[in-house]
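Lab notebook, bench 4. Still working through the backlog of constructs that have no structural model yet. Next entry is a single chain of 495 residues. Request: give me the structure tokens for it.
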Amino acid sequence: MSRVQKLAVIDIGSNSVRLGIFDVENRSYIPLFSEKALCGLGKGFSKKGELNPSAKEAVMMQLHRFVKVIQHVGVDSVQAVATAAMREAVDGKEFASEIERDTGFKVRILTEREEAYYSALGVRSGLHSVKGIVADLGGVSLEMIYLDPDEIDFINSILAGGLKCQDIDEAGEDLDDYLKKIFKVLEDEPRLQEKGDLYLVGGGFRTIGKAYIDHIKYEPRNVHHFSVPRDEMKDFVKRVIRQHENGYRRDDFEIEYPSISGKRAALLPYYGKALLALLHHCKAETVLFSSYGLKEGIFFETLSEDEQKKDPLFLCCDMLAKSQARFQQAPDYVTWLSDIMSLIPQRYERLLKASATLIDLAWMDHSEARGKIAFWRIAYLSLPGASHHERLFIAMTLFVRYTGDFNKFEHKDFLKEFNKEELFVILLFGRALRLASSLSIGDASLLDEVDLSWDEEKKTLSLMTRSSDHTNFDALYGESVQKRFKSLQKTLIEG
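Model written out:
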């Protein structure tokens, strides 16, 4: 059987319908194409037990568009799945059959355990190491899973999604009493008592993350792998709930939190109530948001066991580097800079290798803007295999690679993200990459002729040619290389 090269994943959720097209052949976590539409399939579901008729029409219209997109891109395989709304509705299976007749998409209605499993697998695919509770909040349900490097264990599924809570509230029922009753099943769950991490997945929780980032006026406004202390998150969702109780509605939330869309803004207080109820039972000390979830989990499952074990950070950086490459064979900067890297604590090795791989990320841009462009491009990228802080470390290293220091960085407060050691490592390796780039001109063969070494005892940095003929080396060692060499040497001496 031939290997799938391009995989389309369609997620028919209770609130949104999503399409992600993945490059399986190159194991690219960044979709070739990604789109969503908020159709509200689960809206009104709790009243009749049937799917919302107008939402069904909206879903079908969006799926017809996905048919055309998939045909145009040229996809080998399509996996269409549906979650809680179609699972709980009395006409869910009938609608799945209708979709297959109209579009050709064979829809698999996931069980609670399957939905939870794929969400957890998506989180695992996007983080280098993960241990804690994964919670996926959709329009109708909230799934909870225990996840560590060796285990994915289903905990429970609760009907506490944003649309579900909104329906209960708008029907005049006591939503707080409802949530208190349904969350009671978690009281004796020992894994929720562990003081680890809580990974929040799904559009509902991402909406809370975006609103929180707006609230604290943080840059970059990328919720992926953004972490918040438990108590701070509790205080924020309580604030949102109070705003709703004081008359805030969709338009008010849009103004207060501009990063969230209108339909999501209307559900923000309901997402908040679900999270507050979860935090009452879950003792995790840190809350982390993940842009990777169910779609990415389905993609990850298609990979072989060996491929799943590969570090996603390097795979993604390699793909980005190849897409921006100036030359066919990029230099091995990490090996060439081994003397410099030996001075840096080993815990930074992955991040330094990733930074070296992305050394030419902004080569096509205007020289005055390359540092900023490289920084913001990485800062806003849903980079797999790196935490929020690690992603910003790589971004800042690339900024120094293009500018030489921190002086031109416009957001000085942002440097407080890093401790003294991290700032030194960023400056040192950024300047080392700056020298390597200037000397090699992106050509692997030129670095093969030159050695860079540091004598710790004499505090001396040396750049020497391996050839007895110094002609090539002398010609390359111009003003630009000299300036960058002296800058790196100064950093080492003063370090």
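Notes after review: The first helix runs from residue 45 to 48. The CA atoms of residues 56 and 380 lie 34 Å apart. Flag for follow-up if needed.
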